[in-house]
Amino acid sequence: MWTGAGQDTKKVLCVSEEETGLAYRLEGETPERPYAKMGSDLVLRTISKVGWYEYITEYRFADDGQISVRLGATGDLAPRDYTTPDQGWPIGPGQTDYSVNHYHSAFWRVDFNIGGYGTEKVEQYDTAPTGERGRRGAIYATSKTDVATEATLNTDLRRWWRVVSPTSRNADGHFRSYELELGANDAYEAHPETQPDVTFTQYKPCEKFATFNQDPECAGTTILEYTNGERLTDPVMWVRVGFHHVPRDEDQSPMPVHWQGFDLVPRDFTAQNPLAPADRLGVNGDGVS
């Protein structure tokens, strides 16, 4: 990092390998000798101090191909941000000091180049009950919708998206893709640009930030202005994840890290589990010839 003081540098990136616990377990036909493996992540972190908060930007690259993207907030509660009981939570002795409730809204810009190309397609999947019942329960059907033009979208029950390459296939002949998995997420509906959960836009170099984009090459300054119905031939995904922070006594002090983020799960990158043991590689499909 350039500090402006001659050639002095400052370490700003932490790189580590971390164990993640059990990756899989399978008894199979030999319960006394189950298949089991522990997983690990390559983790990249950097910390930025903004006011009283310290924000941890973290990227976890798992050994099974999953990419987990997170923002952690720690540091301290602002010492002067106290309010009325309906807008805060009592911190400290008694019922006198109400630390204000507040939002952490984060955006990530994801530019895919699966297989070295920038021609991915976007697909939305929804699963809904058909109204019919089978022998063991209700029957649900899954439908696919092509997201062919720029769009702002929101989650729903059993809805998910993937960005898929039309040129790169795995050994089974299936197109490689990344599936977006969103966890806990609080939308900040007071601002229009923080209402969509995910936005897909056509790639433009000048569209660098989800809000307050100041690049003079771009007319638009927010994701809402980027989405003008242009056809997607090189999609960029903007993911918004919000956290509504209601303070608690345990936040003082230092504040325990609270996390928000999402996962990019490989879908059909490999024909089988890339961590599978050698004697399970023959298990691929239903096994019926």
UniProtKB/TrEMBL annotation:
**Cofactor binding remark:** Contains 1 topaquinone per subunit.
Question: Hey, what's the signal peptide range on this chain?
Answer: none
Q: Which cofactor does it need?
A: Cu cation
| Taxonomic superkingdom | Bacteria
- Which UniProt keywords are present, listed alphabetically? Copper, Metal-binding, Oxidoreductase, TPQ
Family listed: Belongs to the copper/topaquinone oxidase family.
**Quaternary structure per UniProt?**
Homodimer.
Q: What is this protein called?
A: Amine oxidase
